[in-house]
Write a structure and sequence with these properties.
Layout (H helix, E strand, L loop, with lengths): L3 H7 L5 E6 L5 H14 L5 E6 L17 E2 L4 H10 L2 E5 L10 H7 L3 E6 L10 E4 L6 H12 L8 H14 L10 H12 L4 H9 L4 H14 E4 L4 E6 L1 H6 L10 H6 L6 E7 L4 E7 L5 H8 L3 E2 L3 E6 L3 H11 L4 H4 L2
Parallel strand pairs: 1-2, 1-4, 2-3, 4-5, 5-6, 8-9
Antiparallel strand pairs: 7-8, 9-10, 10-12, 11-12
Helix pairs in contact: 2-5, 2-6, 5-6, 6-7, 6-8
């Protein structure tokens, strides 16, 4: 692993740079990626953001979003850009499997790789690393990278500030998760002073859904929510048929699992969705309950203690049964 001071020297002159993030990018993934993009173009670098897949339409308003290239739509162009890059920034993921087919292309590229991330157990594929699990969002680390590592806070303009605020806001649960430290509030205050319109960003992210999405939400809460009071657990199970019936698109299920966690006394919430290729799980928990342990141990996933995800190749009802069978093992923790 090389010192970040060496990276500062590399960035002193224009480079060909690719920024990429995890598949199905969320607010932190896109906020940190476009925040870094808007910073680097001010320094004269040739920069492209490449996402492995599409991402929610409620993030398409972010500054310079039209410059983003989606790998599944422009595979050859993406591959060429990665192969010709001098530097590749890998944001909000710590293992190359998180960027699907793009992962091996990045691994084989001659470019220096830079990881900026806050997830547990990073894979050793990078040359430079700005990483800690104590950050509430990768966007927080991008802010620190610009302001403190590179010592160029003057280049955090309105576009950069808007993107980074979006990433921090979304990954901190609108500043309510335990990782929202005094330092985080100082950072977002600085971003607001640099042009981030906090009220407008919140509206664009959280009040920008389709009618179908709202009706789908009502359907899930009325018909799909299961409460297992004996384990302080709530589960929402959604089939592929229901996704099609309501015309659900990328991002429409984001945040759905959090509704289950708002029930008084619930310590663990699970959203189990039947996708076209696999069954996906999103877990949320309160306190010190290890949602990430369940995902890592049983569902080929991982994440943070209170927010984790996994997947399975088994049928939907089998996965639901598997999940429920695990709960007795964690009963003592769930009933604390």
């Amino acid at each position: 692993m090389q010192e970040l001071t060496t990276l500062k020297e590399l960035l002193a002159h224009p480079r060909h740079i690719v920024i990429t993030t995890h598949h199905k990018p969320d607010g932190d993934a896109m906020g940190s990626s476009l925040g870094l993009y808007n910073f680097l173009i001010q320094k004269g670098h040739h920069v492209k953001v490449i996402t492995p897949t599409d991402y929610p339409i409620f993030l398409h308003w972010l500054p310079n979003n039209p410059e983003v290239i989606i790998f599944t739509e422009k595979g050859e162009e993406s591959k060429k850009l990665v192969q010709e890059a001098d530097l590749i920034f890998c944001l909000d993921f710590n293992t190359l499997s998180r960027i699907n087919e793009l992962g091996e292309i990045v691994r084989e590229a001659k470019a220096k790789k830079v990881m900026i991330d806050h997830h547990l157990e990073p894979e050793d594929f990078d040359d430079f690393r700005h990483w800690t699990i104590n950050a509430c969002a990768t966007a927080q680390l991008v802010y620190d990278f610009i302001a403190n590592v590179l010592q160029e806070p003057q280049l955090i303009n309105k576009d950069v500030a808007t993107c980074l605020y979006t990433g921090i806001m979304t990954d901190s649960g609108s500043f309510r998760f335990p990782t929202t430290t005094p330092e985080v509030h100082h950072i977002v205050a600085d971003l607001i002073s640099r042009g981030a319109e906090n009220w407008k960003i919140h509206q664009l992210v959280y009040d920008n859904f389709s009618e179908n999405r709202l009706r789908f939400l009502g359907h899930c809460l009325l018909n799909k929510l299961e409460v297992h009071a004996e384990f302080n657990t709530a589960i929402i199970v959604v089939s592929q048929r229901e996704l099609q019936e309501y015309g659900i698109s990328t991002g429409d299920t984001e945040g759905l699992v959090n509704y289950a966690l708002t029930i008084n006394g619930i310590r663990l919430a699970a959203l189990i969705i039947e996708r076209t290729d696999k069954v996906k799980l999103s877990l949320r928990s309160t306190g010190d309950f290890p949602a990430n342990e369940i995902c890592k141990k049983y569902f080929n996933g991982g994440g943070h203690r209170n927010a984790a995800g996994g997947q399975s190749d088994r049928k939907l009802l089998e996965v639901v049964s598997d999940f429920k069978a695990i709960l007795p093992e964690y009963k003592s923790l769930l009933l604390v």
